[in-house]
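A student in our group prepared the protein record below, which I am reviewing. Here is the record exactly as it was handed to me.
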Amino acid sequence: MIFLAIDTSGKSGGITLAEGNDNSFRVLQSSPIAGGTFSAQLVPTLASLLQKHSLAAADLGGFAAVSGPGSFTGLRVGLSAIKGLAEVLQKPIVTISLLEALATLSYQQGTVAAALDAGRSEIYFGLYSVSNGRATKFQEQLLSQQEFVTQLKASSPVSLVTSDPAVAELAYASGIQVQEVARPEIEAIARMGLQKLLAGETVSVEALDANYIRRSDAEIFSNRKI
């Protein structure tokens, strides 16, 4: 299967064209996309990747996309592009949470907590059961820093993994052991995406949505009473 993986959740993003089956995985090519240019560069970059490998969009067997948490604008752009392509081509879609990816890349087994800095003194927090390189979600939520520390101590023993130094510093200062890893790269996202595509863990075009965890400012302010 030849498929496409994208990540537009961060300050910069990327696209990977890959192929694989139950026994193999190979990256054909990856291309970065600079932050702030997702809407202008996503489709041209995809077209260029396909052209370089003498492929057409119809040759794609599916799509894998990071669904969040992350940039509201970036996620909307990336997922909208995937929706359009998948609908026209009638191809399956799978999504990967960044927190899920962190838990998977920790290479821990059992209960694993993954955390990312959400700004505003808040933490994106996920709790997973990890086995054989797959992470099953228990919960994902937005916590204050104090709630984050309290929940981890209450859940102990649990392995904590993060790619954000600020989260690691908070954990260390609170006496919590933490594993620091690099932010999941697009090739790792593609590998996880292939596993989900082969397992049939797909979402429909209609159900595809960003996993913001936090509500947007527009939603928050619109619900405030004057």
Remarks:
- The helical segments are 38-52, 72-89, 98-105, 145-155, 165-173, 186-199, 217-222.
- The longest helix spans residues 72-89.
- The chain has two domains: 2-97+185-222, 107-180.
- The longest strand covers residues 134-144.
